[in-house]
Specification:
By secondary structure, the protein is mainly beta. The chain has no helices and eleven strands. The strands form two sheets. Strands 2, 4, 5, 6, 9, 10 and 11 form a seven-stranded mixed beta sheet that branches. A four-stranded antiparallel beta sheet has the order 1-3-8-7, with no helix packed on it.
C-alpha cells in the first residue's frame, strides 16, 4: 500500500510564500504523475499542478507564474513552492501520485493514492 503524507501548510499573509512537501512510502516500483490538488470550502477539488516522471508540468491558470511544482525521483517526493499567495488560494491541499507497486511473490500492480491534505490559509 502506498501512502502519501503532506507537510508545510499553515497560515500566511497575502503576498507571502509557503512550500508544501509530499513524502511517499510503500513498496514502490515507479511513480508516473505526481500532483497537487486543492479544495476550498463549498467547492470541488481542483488540480493545481502536476508533473510527470520526465518533468513535464502543467498548472491551473490562476497559479501560473506564482506556483512551481517539482519532484525528487530518488526520494520519491513532490513539492509545491507557492509565492505571491492570495486569499483565494486558501484551501486544503492534497498530494496525489500514481504508478506501480510491488505485491506479494514478486508481483506488481498499479496504485493511485492520495494524501490526507494540509491546510493553507492566506489572510488578507
Amino acid at each position: 500500500q502506498v501512502q502519501l503524507v503532506e507537510s508545510g501548510g499553515g497560515l500566511v499573509q497575502a503576498g507571502g510564500s509557503l512550500r508544501l512537501s509530499c513524502a511517499t512510502s510503500g513498496s514502490i516500483v515507479s511513480i508516473n504523475a505526481m500532483g497537487w490538488y486543492r479544495q476550498a470550502p463549498g467547492k470541488q477539488r481542483e488540480l493545481v499542478a502536476a508533473i510527470t516522471s520526465s518533468g513535464s508540468t502543467n498548472y491551473l491558470e490562476s497559479v501560473k507564474g506564482r506556483f512551481t511544482i517539482s519532484r525528487d525521483n530518488a526520494k520519491k517526493m513532490v513539492y509545491l513552492q507557492m509565492s505571491s499567495l492570495k486569499p483565494e488560494d486558501t484551501a486544503v491541499y492534497y498530494c496525489h501520485a500514481d504508478g506501480t507497486t510491488y505485491v506479494n511473490f514478486g508481483g506488481r500492480r498499479p496504485f493511485d493514492s492520495w494524501g490526507r491534505g494540509t491546510q493553507v490559509t492566506v489572510s488578507s
